[in-house]
Amino acid sequence: MLRPQFRPLAAGVSAFCQSSLRLAALRGYATQVYSSPDSDASTALSGAGSQADYEPVKMRTYKPRTPGLRHLKRPINDHLWKGRPYLPLTFPKKGHGKGGRNNQGVITVRHRGGGHKRRIRTVDFERWAPGPHLVERIEYDPGRSAHIALLTQKANGKKSYIVAAEGMRAGDVVHSYRQGIPKDLLDSMGGVIDPGVLASKTAWRGNCLPMHMIPVGTNVFNVGSQAKGGAVFCRSAGTYATVISKEEETREDGSKVVTGRFVVVRLQSGEIRRVSKDACATIGVASNVMHHYRQLGKAGRKRWLNIRPTVRGLAMNAFEHPHGGGRGKSKGNRIPTSPWGTPSKGGFKTRRKSNINKWVVTPRVRNMGKRRDKKTA
Protein backbone atom coordinates (compact mmCIF):
# COMPACT_ATOMS: atom_id res chain seq x y z
CA MET A 1 0.00 0.00 0.00
CA LEU A 2 1.27 3.45 -0.94
CA ARG A 3 1.81 5.70 2.04
CA PRO A 4 0.62 9.32 1.72
CA GLN A 5 3.35 11.91 1.55
CA PHE A 6 3.04 14.98 3.80
CA ARG A 7 5.07 18.15 3.71
CA PRO A 8 5.09 21.07 6.19
CA LEU A 9 2.79 23.91 5.23
CA ALA A 10 3.91 27.47 4.64
CA ALA A 11 3.02 30.08 7.25
CA GLY A 12 -0.44 31.57 6.95
CA VAL A 13 -2.17 28.59 5.34
CA SER A 14 -5.84 28.51 6.25
CA ALA A 15 -7.76 25.66 7.84
CA PHE A 16 -9.52 25.07 4.51
CA CYS A 17 -6.17 24.41 2.85
CA GLN A 18 -5.23 21.99 5.63
CA SER A 19 -8.45 20.05 5.17
CA SER A 20 -7.90 19.86 1.41
CA LEU A 21 -4.42 18.49 2.11
CA ARG A 22 -5.95 15.62 4.07
CA LEU A 23 -8.21 14.86 1.11
CA ALA A 24 -5.21 14.80 -1.19
CA ALA A 25 -3.68 12.12 1.02
CA LEU A 26 -6.29 9.71 -0.37
CA ARG A 27 -4.43 9.82 -3.68
CA GLY A 28 -1.50 8.10 -1.98
CA TYR A 29 1.25 9.43 -4.23
CA ALA A 30 0.09 13.05 -4.68
CA THR A 31 0.87 16.00 -2.43
CA GLN A 32 -0.20 19.64 -2.32
CA VAL A 33 2.67 22.10 -2.04
CA TYR A 34 2.25 25.70 -0.92
CA SER A 35 4.71 28.48 -1.71
CA SER A 36 4.83 32.27 -1.82
CA PRO A 37 2.65 33.71 -4.59
CA ASP A 38 3.58 35.75 -7.62
CA SER A 39 2.93 39.45 -7.01
CA ASP A 40 0.87 40.04 -10.18
CA ALA A 41 -1.37 37.00 -9.76
CA SER A 42 -2.01 37.59 -6.06
CA THR A 43 -2.76 41.26 -6.59
CA ALA A 44 -5.26 40.47 -9.32
CA LEU A 45 -7.06 37.86 -7.24
CA SER A 46 -7.25 39.57 -3.88
CA GLY A 47 -7.05 43.23 -4.89
CA ALA A 48 -5.40 45.79 -2.67
CA GLY A 49 -4.28 44.46 0.69
CA SER A 50 -1.35 43.33 2.76
CA GLN A 51 0.88 40.40 1.94
CA ALA A 52 -0.90 38.32 4.57
CA ASP A 53 -4.14 38.59 2.58
CA TYR A 54 -2.65 36.95 -0.54
CA GLU A 55 -3.53 33.39 -1.49
CA PRO A 56 -0.67 30.87 -1.44
CA VAL A 57 0.30 29.10 -4.64
CA LYS A 58 -1.26 25.64 -4.54
CA MET A 59 0.35 22.99 -6.73
CA ARG A 60 0.11 19.22 -6.77
CA THR A 61 3.30 17.17 -6.79
CA TYR A 62 3.73 13.41 -7.03
CA LYS A 63 5.79 10.78 -5.31
CA PRO A 64 8.63 9.90 -7.74
CA ARG A 65 7.56 6.36 -8.57
CA THR A 66 8.86 7.03 -12.11
CA PRO A 67 11.42 9.57 -13.41
CA GLY A 68 8.65 11.47 -15.19
CA LEU A 69 6.77 12.04 -11.94
CA ARG A 70 9.78 13.35 -10.01
CA HIS A 71 9.56 16.91 -11.36
CA LEU A 72 5.89 16.91 -12.36
CA LYS A 73 4.01 19.84 -10.83
CA ARG A 74 0.44 20.77 -11.75
CA PRO A 75 -2.17 23.29 -10.65
CA ILE A 76 -4.96 21.92 -8.50
CA ASN A 77 -8.12 22.02 -10.62
CA ASP A 78 -10.38 19.45 -9.00
CA HIS A 79 -13.48 21.41 -10.01
CA LEU A 80 -13.06 20.66 -13.73
CA TRP A 81 -15.53 18.51 -15.64
CA LYS A 82 -14.31 14.91 -15.91
CA GLY A 83 -16.30 13.91 -19.02
CA ARG A 84 -16.18 14.73 -22.72
CA PRO A 85 -16.93 18.19 -24.13
CA TYR A 86 -20.29 19.25 -25.56
CA LEU A 87 -19.79 17.71 -29.01
CA PRO A 88 -22.10 20.03 -31.07
CA LEU A 89 -19.74 22.91 -30.19
CA THR A 90 -16.58 21.06 -31.28
CA PHE A 91 -14.94 19.92 -34.50
CA PRO A 92 -11.84 17.74 -35.06
CA LYS A 93 -8.40 19.24 -35.58
CA LYS A 94 -7.09 17.25 -38.52
CA GLY A 95 -4.81 17.63 -41.53
CA HIS A 96 -1.33 19.03 -42.02
CA GLY A 97 -2.23 22.13 -40.00
CA LYS A 98 -1.15 20.20 -36.91
CA GLY A 99 2.43 20.32 -38.19
CA GLY A 100 2.70 24.12 -38.29
CA ARG A 101 2.03 24.32 -42.04
CA ASN A 102 -0.03 26.80 -44.03
CA ASN A 103 -2.55 26.06 -46.79
CA GLN A 104 0.32 25.45 -49.26
CA GLY A 105 2.10 22.92 -47.08
CA VAL A 106 4.97 25.22 -46.11
CA ILE A 107 6.14 25.12 -42.49
CA THR A 108 5.43 28.58 -41.06
CA VAL A 109 5.71 27.63 -37.36
CA ARG A 110 8.64 25.41 -36.47
CA HIS A 111 8.76 22.72 -33.80
CA ARG A 112 5.17 21.57 -34.24
CA GLY A 113 3.89 18.09 -34.97
CA GLY A 114 2.48 14.92 -33.45
CA GLY A 115 0.56 15.39 -30.25
CA HIS A 116 -2.64 13.91 -28.95
CA LYS A 117 -5.81 13.87 -30.98
CA ARG A 118 -7.84 17.02 -30.28
CA ARG A 119 -11.19 18.61 -30.93
CA ILE A 120 -11.41 22.37 -31.32
CA ARG A 121 -13.90 24.00 -28.93
CA THR A 122 -15.94 26.79 -30.53
CA VAL A 123 -15.62 29.61 -27.98
CA ASP A 124 -17.90 32.66 -28.09
CA PHE A 125 -15.67 35.73 -27.85
CA GLU A 126 -18.43 38.19 -28.86
CA ARG A 127 -21.25 37.31 -26.43
CA TRP A 128 -24.04 39.18 -28.16
CA ALA A 129 -26.78 37.00 -26.64
CA PRO A 130 -28.49 38.98 -23.82
CA GLY A 131 -30.19 37.67 -20.72
CA PRO A 132 -29.10 35.32 -17.94
CA HIS A 133 -26.89 32.34 -18.77
CA LEU A 134 -26.40 29.41 -16.39
CA VAL A 135 -22.89 27.99 -16.01
CA GLU A 136 -23.33 24.25 -16.49
CA ARG A 137 -19.70 23.25 -15.86
CA ILE A 138 -16.07 24.34 -16.10
CA GLU A 139 -14.01 22.36 -18.62
CA TYR A 140 -10.40 21.88 -19.64
CA ASP A 141 -9.63 23.06 -23.16
CA PRO A 142 -6.56 21.49 -24.84
CA GLY A 143 -6.41 24.40 -27.28
CA ARG A 144 -5.79 27.15 -24.72
CA SER A 145 -4.23 27.71 -21.32
CA ALA A 146 -7.37 29.11 -19.66
CA HIS A 147 -10.40 27.01 -18.77
CA ILE A 148 -13.75 27.33 -20.54
CA ALA A 149 -17.30 27.38 -19.19
CA LEU A 150 -20.32 25.77 -20.81
CA LEU A 151 -23.30 28.17 -20.66
CA THR A 152 -26.99 27.52 -21.16
CA GLN A 153 -29.19 30.49 -22.09
CA LYS A 154 -32.23 30.42 -19.83
CA ALA A 155 -34.54 31.91 -22.45
CA ASN A 156 -34.12 29.26 -25.16
CA GLY A 157 -31.70 26.64 -23.77
CA LYS A 158 -29.01 27.39 -26.35
CA LYS A 159 -25.51 26.36 -25.25
CA SER A 160 -22.21 28.13 -25.80
CA TYR A 161 -18.62 28.11 -24.58
CA ILE A 162 -16.87 31.14 -23.07
CA VAL A 163 -13.48 31.63 -21.42
CA ALA A 164 -14.11 31.11 -17.71
CA ALA A 165 -13.24 33.73 -15.12
CA GLU A 166 -11.14 32.78 -12.11
CA GLY A 167 -13.49 31.65 -9.34
CA MET A 168 -16.38 30.84 -11.69
CA ARG A 169 -18.10 27.58 -10.80
CA ALA A 170 -21.01 25.47 -11.97
CA GLY A 171 -24.34 27.00 -10.97
CA ASP A 172 -23.27 30.63 -11.41
CA VAL A 173 -25.38 32.96 -13.55
CA VAL A 174 -23.72 35.43 -15.93
CA HIS A 175 -25.13 38.13 -18.20
CA SER A 176 -24.11 40.02 -21.30
CA TYR A 177 -24.98 43.71 -21.67
CA ARG A 178 -23.47 44.32 -25.12
CA GLN A 179 -26.89 45.06 -26.63
CA GLY A 180 -27.73 47.62 -23.97
CA ILE A 181 -29.26 47.86 -20.52
CA PRO A 182 -32.35 45.61 -20.08
CA LYS A 183 -35.66 47.32 -19.46
CA ASP A 184 -36.24 45.65 -16.09
CA LEU A 185 -32.83 46.84 -14.86
CA LEU A 186 -33.53 50.37 -16.11
CA ASP A 187 -36.92 50.39 -14.37
CA SER A 188 -35.34 49.28 -11.11
CA MET A 189 -33.19 52.43 -11.21
CA GLY A 190 -36.25 54.64 -11.69
CA GLY A 191 -35.78 55.07 -15.44
CA VAL A 192 -32.57 57.09 -14.95
CA ILE A 193 -29.11 55.58 -15.35
CA ASP A 194 -27.14 55.93 -12.14
CA PRO A 195 -23.49 54.90 -12.82
CA GLY A 196 -22.92 53.70 -9.26
CA VAL A 197 -26.08 51.61 -9.08
CA LEU A 198 -25.53 50.32 -12.61
CA ALA A 199 -21.99 49.18 -11.76
CA SER A 200 -23.15 47.46 -8.57
CA LYS A 201 -25.73 45.46 -10.53
CA THR A 202 -23.72 44.65 -13.68
CA ALA A 203 -19.97 44.64 -12.86
CA TRP A 204 -19.86 41.07 -11.57
CA ARG A 205 -17.38 38.31 -12.33
CA GLY A 206 -18.09 36.69 -15.70
CA ASN A 207 -20.45 39.41 -16.98
CA CYS A 208 -19.68 40.87 -20.41
CA LEU A 209 -20.06 44.66 -20.65
CA PRO A 210 -19.19 47.38 -23.15
CA MET A 211 -16.14 49.32 -22.01
CA HIS A 212 -18.05 52.53 -21.23
CA MET A 213 -20.13 50.69 -18.57
CA ILE A 214 -17.11 49.35 -16.66
CA PRO A 215 -15.91 51.42 -13.66
CA VAL A 216 -12.40 52.84 -13.72
CA GLY A 217 -9.88 50.60 -11.95
CA THR A 218 -11.71 47.34 -12.70
CA ASN A 219 -9.76 44.25 -13.79
CA VAL A 220 -11.15 42.80 -17.03
CA PHE A 221 -10.17 40.10 -19.51
CA ASN A 222 -11.33 39.07 -23.00
CA VAL A 223 -10.99 42.72 -24.02
CA GLY A 224 -12.08 43.74 -27.52
CA SER A 225 -10.74 46.59 -29.60
CA GLN A 226 -13.63 47.39 -31.98
CA ALA A 227 -17.29 48.08 -31.42
CA LYS A 228 -18.59 45.12 -33.43
CA GLY A 229 -15.77 42.64 -32.93
CA GLY A 230 -14.96 40.03 -30.35
CA ALA A 231 -12.30 39.80 -27.67
CA VAL A 232 -8.68 40.02 -28.82
CA PHE A 233 -6.66 40.91 -25.67
CA CYS A 234 -6.10 39.07 -22.36
CA ARG A 235 -7.50 35.69 -23.35
CA SER A 236 -4.85 33.34 -21.89
CA ALA A 237 -4.69 31.96 -18.37
CA GLY A 238 -4.31 34.48 -15.54
CA THR A 239 -4.24 37.56 -17.77
CA TYR A 240 -6.20 40.76 -17.21
CA ALA A 241 -6.26 44.43 -18.15
CA THR A 242 -7.13 47.43 -16.00
CA VAL A 243 -9.46 50.23 -17.06
CA ILE A 244 -7.44 53.44 -16.63
CA SER A 245 -9.66 56.29 -17.76
CA LYS A 246 -12.77 57.25 -19.69
CA GLU A 247 -13.58 60.56 -21.35
CA GLU A 248 -16.52 61.61 -19.21
CA GLU A 249 -18.31 64.83 -18.43
CA THR A 250 -20.41 65.56 -15.37
CA ARG A 251 -23.90 66.98 -15.94
CA GLU A 252 -25.79 69.40 -13.70
CA ASP A 253 -27.65 66.59 -11.94
CA GLY A 254 -24.31 64.97 -11.02
CA SER A 255 -24.51 62.08 -13.47
CA LYS A 256 -21.50 61.24 -15.62
CA VAL A 257 -21.76 60.61 -19.35
CA VAL A 258 -19.03 59.13 -21.56
CA THR A 259 -18.48 61.69 -24.31
CA GLY A 260 -15.29 60.34 -25.93
CA ARG A 261 -15.02 57.53 -28.43
CA PHE A 262 -12.36 55.55 -26.58
CA VAL A 263 -11.51 54.01 -23.21
CA VAL A 264 -7.90 53.70 -22.05
CA VAL A 265 -6.75 50.35 -20.62
CA ARG A 266 -3.42 49.10 -19.30
CA LEU A 267 -2.29 45.64 -20.33
CA GLN A 268 -0.05 43.41 -18.22
CA SER A 269 2.95 44.12 -20.42
CA GLY A 270 2.75 47.77 -19.27
CA GLU A 271 1.36 48.95 -22.59
CA ILE A 272 -1.41 51.53 -22.33
CA ARG A 273 -3.74 51.64 -25.31
CA ARG A 274 -7.08 52.94 -26.46
CA VAL A 275 -10.03 50.72 -27.33
CA SER A 276 -13.50 51.57 -28.52
CA LYS A 277 -15.98 52.54 -25.81
CA ASP A 278 -18.39 49.96 -27.28
CA ALA A 279 -15.81 47.16 -27.29
CA CYS A 280 -16.53 44.15 -25.10
CA ALA A 281 -14.77 43.08 -21.92
CA THR A 282 -15.48 40.49 -19.23
CA ILE A 283 -15.20 41.34 -15.55
CA GLY A 284 -12.54 39.45 -13.61
CA VAL A 285 -9.32 37.58 -14.34
CA ALA A 286 -8.94 34.76 -16.85
CA SER A 287 -9.09 31.36 -15.13
CA ASN A 288 -6.25 28.95 -14.29
CA VAL A 289 -3.98 31.64 -12.85
CA MET A 290 -1.46 29.05 -11.60
CA HIS A 291 -0.83 27.81 -15.14
CA HIS A 292 2.65 29.33 -15.43
CA TYR A 293 3.85 27.51 -12.30
CA ARG A 294 3.39 24.07 -13.87
CA GLN A 295 6.30 21.75 -14.71
CA LEU A 296 5.76 19.09 -17.35
CA GLY A 297 8.17 16.64 -15.75
CA LYS A 298 9.33 14.81 -18.88
CA ALA A 299 9.96 15.29 -22.59
CA GLY A 300 7.12 12.99 -23.58
CA ARG A 301 4.54 15.28 -22.02
CA LYS A 302 5.86 18.04 -24.28
CA ARG A 303 5.30 15.80 -27.30
CA TRP A 304 1.71 15.14 -26.19
CA LEU A 305 1.15 18.90 -26.45
CA ASN A 306 2.12 18.90 -30.16
CA ILE A 307 5.57 20.43 -29.48
CA ARG A 308 8.65 18.94 -31.16
CA PRO A 309 12.26 19.36 -29.99
CA THR A 310 14.31 22.50 -30.65
CA VAL A 311 17.82 21.91 -32.00
CA ARG A 312 20.68 24.37 -31.50
CA GLY A 313 21.97 26.05 -34.63
CA LEU A 314 25.50 25.10 -33.63
CA ALA A 315 24.60 21.42 -33.98
CA MET A 316 23.18 21.82 -37.52
CA ASN A 317 24.81 21.63 -40.91
CA ALA A 318 26.03 24.73 -42.70
CA PHE A 319 23.09 24.85 -45.12
CA GLU A 320 20.56 24.66 -42.26
CA HIS A 321 21.78 27.47 -40.02
CA PRO A 322 24.38 30.28 -40.10
CA HIS A 323 26.03 28.73 -37.02
CA GLY A 324 26.16 25.24 -38.53
CA GLY A 325 29.02 23.34 -40.12
CA GLY A 326 32.73 23.52 -39.42
CA ARG A 327 35.03 21.12 -37.64
CA GLY A 328 34.36 20.81 -33.97
CA LYS A 329 32.27 23.22 -31.94
CA SER A 330 32.51 26.43 -33.97
CA LYS A 331 29.99 28.93 -35.23
CA GLY A 332 32.36 30.64 -37.64
CA ASN A 333 33.20 33.70 -35.52
CA ARG A 334 29.73 35.08 -36.12
CA ILE A 335 27.40 37.03 -33.86
CA PRO A 336 24.33 35.06 -32.68
CA THR A 337 21.70 35.06 -35.41
CA SER A 338 18.41 33.40 -36.25
CA PRO A 339 18.20 30.72 -38.99
CA TRP A 340 17.40 33.53 -41.45
CA GLY A 341 20.36 35.74 -40.51
CA THR A 342 18.63 38.30 -38.28
CA PRO A 343 20.69 39.16 -35.16
CA SER A 344 19.10 37.52 -32.15
CA LYS A 345 20.94 39.38 -29.37
CA GLY A 346 21.53 42.98 -28.39
CA GLY A 347 18.04 44.35 -29.02
CA PHE A 348 18.19 44.39 -32.83
CA LYS A 349 15.23 46.44 -34.07
CA THR A 350 13.10 45.06 -36.89
CA ARG A 351 10.06 47.34 -36.64
CA ARG A 352 9.79 50.18 -39.14
CA LYS A 353 9.69 53.65 -37.62
CA SER A 354 6.87 54.63 -39.96
CA ASN A 355 4.72 51.71 -38.77
CA ILE A 356 3.35 53.42 -35.66
CA ASN A 357 0.38 51.94 -33.85
CA LYS A 358 -1.96 54.88 -33.36
CA TRP A 359 -3.96 53.06 -30.69
CA VAL A 360 -1.01 52.77 -28.29
CA VAL A 361 -0.81 55.63 -25.78
CA THR A 362 2.30 54.39 -23.93
CA PRO A 363 4.30 51.50 -25.41
CA ARG A 364 5.55 48.71 -23.20
CA VAL A 365 9.06 48.87 -21.80
CA ARG A 366 11.48 46.92 -23.97
CA ASN A 367 14.62 45.34 -22.57
CA MET A 368 16.94 45.97 -25.50
CA GLY A 369 18.36 42.47 -25.17
CA LYS A 370 19.00 42.74 -21.43
CA ARG A 371 17.58 40.43 -18.81
CA ARG A 372 14.80 41.98 -16.78
CA ASP A 373 14.75 41.78 -13.00
CA LYS A 374 11.45 40.18 -12.02
CA LYS A 375 11.34 41.99 -8.68
CA THR A 376 11.46 45.44 -10.26
CA ALA A 377 9.40 44.67 -13.37
TrEMBL record:
<feature type="domain" description="Large ribosomal subunit protein uL2 RNA-binding">
    <location>
        <begin position="100"/>
        <end position="176"/>
    </location>
</feature>
<protein>
    <recommendedName>
        <fullName>Large ribosomal subunit protein uL2m</fullName>
    </recommendedName>
</protein>
<dbReference type="InterPro" id="IPR012340">
    <property type="entry name" value="NA-bd_OB-fold"/>
</dbReference>
<dbReference type="InterPro" id="IPR014722">
    <property type="entry name" value="Rib_uL2_dom2"/>
</dbReference>
<dbReference type="Pfam" id="PF03947">
    <property type="entry name" value="Ribosomal_L2_C"/>
</dbReference>
<feature type="compositionally biased region" description="Basic residues">
    <location>
        <begin position="367"/>
        <end position="377"/>
    </location>
</feature>
<dbReference type="InterPro" id="IPR014726">
    <property type="entry name" value="Ribosomal_uL2_dom3"/>
</dbReference>
<dbReference type="InterPro" id="IPR022669">
    <property type="entry name" value="Ribosomal_uL2_C"/>
</dbReference>
<feature type="region of interest" description="Disordered">
    <location>
        <begin position="318"/>
        <end position="377"/>
    </location>
</feature>
<keyword id="KW-0496">Mitochondrion</keyword>
<dbReference type="GO" id="GO:0032543">
    <property type="term" value="P:mitochondrial translation"/>
</dbReference>
<feature type="region of interest" description="Disordered">
    <location>
        <begin position="91"/>
        <end position="113"/>
    </location>
</feature>
<dbReference type="InterPro" id="IPR022666">
    <property type="entry name" value="Ribosomal_uL2_RNA-bd_dom"/>
</dbReference>
<dbReference type="InterPro" id="IPR008991">
    <property type="entry name" value="Translation_prot_SH3-like_sf"/>
</dbReference>
<dbReference type="GO" id="GO:0003735">
    <property type="term" value="F:structural constituent of ribosome"/>
</dbReference>
<comment type="function">
    <text>Component of the mitochondrial ribosome (mitoribosome), a dedicated translation machinery responsible for the synthesis of mitochondrial genome-encoded proteins, including at least some of the essential transmembrane subunits of the mitochondrial respiratory chain. The mitoribosomes are attached to the mitochondrial inner membrane and translation products are cotranslationally integrated into the membrane.</text>
</comment>
<comment type="similarity">
    <text>Belongs to the universal ribosomal protein uL2 family.</text>
</comment>
<dbReference type="GO" id="GO:0016740">
    <property type="term" value="F:transferase activity"/>
</dbReference>
<dbReference type="Pfam" id="PF00181">
    <property type="entry name" value="Ribosomal_L2_N"/>
</dbReference>
<keyword id="KW-0689">Ribosomal protein</keyword>
<keyword id="KW-0687">Ribonucleoprotein</keyword>
<dbReference type="GO" id="GO:0003723">
    <property type="term" value="F:RNA binding"/>
</dbReference>
<dbReference type="GO" id="GO:0005762">
    <property type="term" value="C:mitochondrial large ribosomal subunit"/>
</dbReference>
<feature type="domain" description="Large ribosomal subunit protein uL2 C-terminal">
    <location>
        <begin position="203"/>
        <end position="343"/>
    </location>
</feature>
<dbReference type="InterPro" id="IPR002171">
    <property type="entry name" value="Ribosomal_uL2"/>
</dbReference>
<dbReference type="InterPro" id="IPR005880">
    <property type="entry name" value="Ribosomal_uL2_bac/org-type"/>
</dbReference>
